[in-house]
């Protein structure tokens, strides 16, 4: 993976020093909350319900064992012993004190990590394919480009105060696992007729209040020009994106308003000034960065059968083990979706243990997935039984990848000041209801995505079943969308009708599944049945008869986070 | 006082802002060293261009290109930041410096604060009028927050990878 040189270290250290001074000035009252808020956001610090939340950048989802141990250290030293992996491949800690944040950032810098631009109206951490570099369907490894773009976007002087946040995703594979169509800019590696590497560039995708699938602005930008090209996109956005209405400020609104043709014309007009100029990426720079992503020292192996006489192991292999481009190797997904825990959460002990597994089985590296799981990318097939045993002991071997309980879930009402409804307890209630693995395997591939509000951090629009927390007269309700998808066939789900209470939700999911089980052809996936039939039969089933509330879901296990002692902080800002 | 070329200096320019009842055509431009709004320059250029010393300022929704043919006429061009979180002024400065080749004084006015000044400097500003309630000597420190930068901008035509040798071994 990429390693910092002296320049990267210096920039990171100077950033920590800058923020340390800003925190000092905030604490002394020199900076008002209004002035400070934007500065802390650009250093990853949100004010949540109970405390500050620190969101640490994991560039393109890749971490070393040492970095994972640092997360464990942060969890223990500054937090409450756990962290939350997010849909943008980052990690968040929920219980920070402002005074501690500079020290936490300094600790992170010691392992070449930071929280730069993980929030605020700037270019956010760039996400990518969790199987980059090892996937069989890869055209070219996207990570060197992601790193080059990370450096370009870090403290870009023109783009720290954009109209709104700005997210990039990049994939190098035929099958898009980075959800590039729902990002402000989505980049897909392609090769032209001459075999040269370039990017298909999508722009204006995004979820939230106005979900839109990104549109192609250019079918091929050769790699040398990608910095200048995206810089022109962001510049036009900075100049013309709306600033009068926060809900209309994302680039998607500008692209819609101008039309893609006119937007493209403006971008390319700007680009004429920089194309072929000094910001053109040099072969030497690409080579330098690419050298950090060369394949590890794989053994010469051939593929082997992994099936054993242990059904649970076989099932785990079927769901959690993914193909690898090198014979004899596979990638393994460590599930963070065990029933009963918040999806994407890991304890400090699990983080330390995952780091050890990475060292033992996968060249000391891990990836964080946008589905909020961990990946060991380079595992020998012959090591699978040992890895399975070890992961089982850690509670990270649930054989549910891609299944019903592998839900995406935002922090929701338990942590987030914007939430209309609880997300984590709902995920828990649903997982408990459908915990049976035989049932889950029978249902097969399905994605349930939960967002606690319209901001869509839980990507509900692109869930096969999307659940959105809505507010009705101050009460929490849940709206269901059906038929969304991510990846190459990305599309937005359709709302099926009026919303439900928390206690009705497991039954609602059960009814949706009943229609599927009744109507599916042999191997048809849930999403394909939905596409074939449309939403009507599902609607009919769900709304056909009244749904009783499940009383036990009113029990204490589903309340907001227990043990809440909010910090008495004078720096509270309820909205960000 | 303002910050200019990284030092605190006295300043005798007056920034003219239109009052509620003023129009660009009719507002009285006082004599002396005045920085007028772009619209006033456009409306009154016939009289204003006779002045020996004149400055102009752009609002964040205005375009650097509107000054394209007049750049040499001004002793100072300013860009207004109505709120420090409004980032359009950075691109305006970049255009003035890099695209239009403006080399005179480029001054940030309005909601100008220490913690944005490093970026402002990179985008092309060489003069800063920090908000009146802030200590200007403290603000000056903001210009030296970083000693290295990754990307090219108005202050530096080359990105880091062309400026230095980064041949650290993986
Ligand atoms: S979707 Fe809404 S409730 Fe959930 S984390 Fe995002 S802002 Fe908070």
Computed CA radius of gyration of chain A, to the nearest angstrom: 23 Å
CATH topology-level fold name of chain B: Rossmann fold
What is the C-level CATH assignment of chain B?
Answer: Alpha Beta
Spatially, the strands of the biggest sheet of chain A line up as: 1-2-5-4-13
Question: Which distinct ligands sit in these coordinates?
Answer: iron/sulfur cluster
What is the CA–CA distance across the termini of chain B?
49 Å
Structural class label of chain B: alpha/beta
What's the pLDDT, averaged over the residues of chain A? 93
Task: Describe the overall structure.
The complex is a heterodimer of chains A (576) and B (170). With 576 residues, chain A is an alpha+beta fold. Chain A folds into three domains: 6-109, Alpha-Beta Plaits; 134-291, Sulfite Reductase Hemoprotein, domain 1 (2-Layer Sandwich), CATH 3.30.413.10; 408-552, Sulfite Reductase Hemoprotein, domain 1 (2-Layer Sandwich), CATH 3.30.413.10. Chain A has 17 helices and 20 strands. In chain A, a hairpin with a 5-residue loop joins strand 4 and strand 5. In chain A, 56% of the residues are buried. Chain B has a single domain, classed as 3-Layer(aba) Sandwich (Rossmann fold), CATH 3.40.50. Chain B has five helices and eight strands, in the order E-E-E-E-H-E-E-H-E-H-E-H-H. An eight-stranded mixed sheet of chain B has the order 2-1-8-7-6-5-4-3. With 170 residues, chain B is of the alpha/beta class. Classes of the chains: A alpha+beta (576), B alpha/beta (170). The interface between A and B is large, with 44 and 40 residues. The structure holds iron/sulfur cluster.
């Amino acid at each position: 993976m990429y390693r910092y040189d002296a320049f990267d270290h210096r920039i990171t250290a100077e950033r920590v020093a800058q923020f340390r001074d800003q925190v000092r000035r905030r604490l002394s009252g020199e900076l008002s909350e209004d002035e400070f808020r934007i500065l802390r956001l650009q250093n990853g610090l949100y004010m949540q319900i109970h405390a500050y939340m620190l969101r640490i950048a994991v560039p393109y989802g890749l971490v070393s064992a040492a970095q994972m141990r640092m997360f464990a250290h942060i969890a223990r030293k500054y937090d409450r012993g756990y962290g939350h992996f997010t849909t943008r491949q980052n990690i968040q800690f929920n219980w920070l004190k402002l005074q501690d944040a500079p020290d936490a950032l300094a600790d992170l810098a010691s392992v070449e990590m930071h929280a730069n631009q993980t929030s605020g109206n700037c270019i956010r951490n760039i996400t990518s394919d969790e199987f980059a570099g090892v996937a069989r369907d890869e055209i070219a490894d996207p990570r060197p480009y992601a790193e080059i773009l990370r450096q370009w976007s870090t403290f870009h002087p023109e783009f720290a105060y954009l109209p709104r946040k700005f997210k990039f995703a990049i994939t190098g594979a035929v099958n898009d696992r980075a959800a590039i169509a729902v990002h402000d800019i989505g980049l897909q590696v392609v090769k032209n007729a001459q075999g040269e590497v370039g990017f298909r560039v999508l722009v204006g995708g995004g979820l939230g209040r106005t979900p839109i699938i990104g549109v192609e602005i250019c079918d091929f930008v050769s790699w040398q020009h990608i910095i200048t090209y995206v810089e022109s996109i962001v510049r036009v956005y900075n100049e013309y994106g709306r600033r009068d209405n926060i809900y209309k400020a994302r680039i998607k609104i500008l692209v819609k308003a101008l039309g893609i043709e006119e937007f493209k014309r403006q971008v390319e007009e700007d680009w004429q000034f920089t194309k072929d100029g000094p910001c053109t990426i040099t072969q030497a720079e690409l080579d330098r960065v690419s050298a950090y992503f060369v394949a590890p020292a794989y053994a010469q192996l051939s593929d082997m059968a992994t099936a054993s006489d242990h059904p649970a192991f076989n099932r785990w292999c079927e769901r959690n083990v993914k193909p690898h481009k090198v014979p004899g190797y596979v990638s393994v997904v460590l599930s963070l979706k065990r029933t009963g825990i918040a999806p994407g959460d890991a304890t400090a002990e699990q983080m330390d243990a995952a780091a050890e597994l990475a060292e033992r089985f996968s060249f000391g590296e891990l990836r964080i997935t946008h589905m909020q799981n961990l990946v060991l990318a380079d595992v020998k097939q012959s090591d699978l039984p040992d890895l399975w045993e070890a992961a089982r002991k850690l509670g990270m071997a649930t054989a549910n990848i891609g299944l019903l309980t592998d839900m995406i879930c935002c922090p929701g009402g338990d942590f987030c000041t914007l939430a209309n409804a609880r997300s984590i307890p709902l995920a828990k209630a649903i997982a408990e209801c459908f915990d049976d693995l035989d049932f889950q395997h029978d249902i097969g591939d399905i994605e349930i995505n939960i967002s606690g509000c319209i901001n869509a951090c839980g990507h509900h629009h692109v869930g096969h079943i999307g659940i959105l927390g809505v507010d009705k007269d101050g009460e929490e309700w849940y709206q269901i969308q059906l038929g969304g998808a991510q990846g190459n066939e990305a599309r937005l789900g359709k709302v099926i009708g009026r919303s439900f209470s928390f206690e009705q939700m497991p039954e609602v999911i059960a009814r949706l599944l009943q229609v599927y089980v009744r109507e599916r052809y042999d191997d048809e996936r849930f999403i394909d049945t939905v596409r074939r039939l449309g939403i009507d039969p599902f609607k009919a089933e769900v709304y056909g008869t009244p749904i009783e509330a499940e009383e036990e879901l009113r029990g204490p296990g589903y309340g907001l986070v227990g043990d809440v002692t909010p910090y008495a902080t004078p720096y509270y800002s309820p909205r960000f | 006082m303002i910050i200019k070329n990284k030092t605190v200096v006295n300043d005798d320019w007056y920034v003219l802002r239109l009052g509620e009842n003023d129009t660009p055509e009719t507002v009285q431009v006082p004599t002396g060293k005045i920085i007028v709004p772009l619209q006033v320059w456009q409306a009154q250029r016939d009289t204003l261009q006779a002045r020996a010393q004149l400055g102009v300022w752009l609002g964040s929704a205005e375009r650097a290109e509107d000054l394209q043919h007049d750049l040499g006429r001004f002793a100072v061009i300013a860009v207004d930041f109505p709120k420090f979180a409004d980032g359009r002024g950075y691109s305006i400065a970049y255009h003035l410096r890099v695209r239009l080749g403006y080399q005179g004084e480029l001054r940030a006015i309005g909601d100008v604060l220490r913690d944005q000044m490093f970026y402002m400097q990179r985008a092309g500003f060489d003069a800063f009028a920090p908000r009146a309630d802030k200590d200007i000597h403290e603000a000056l420190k903001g210009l030296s927050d970083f000693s290295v930068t990754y990307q090219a901008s108005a202050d530096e035509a080359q990105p880091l990878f062309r400026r230095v040798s980064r041949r650290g071994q993986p």
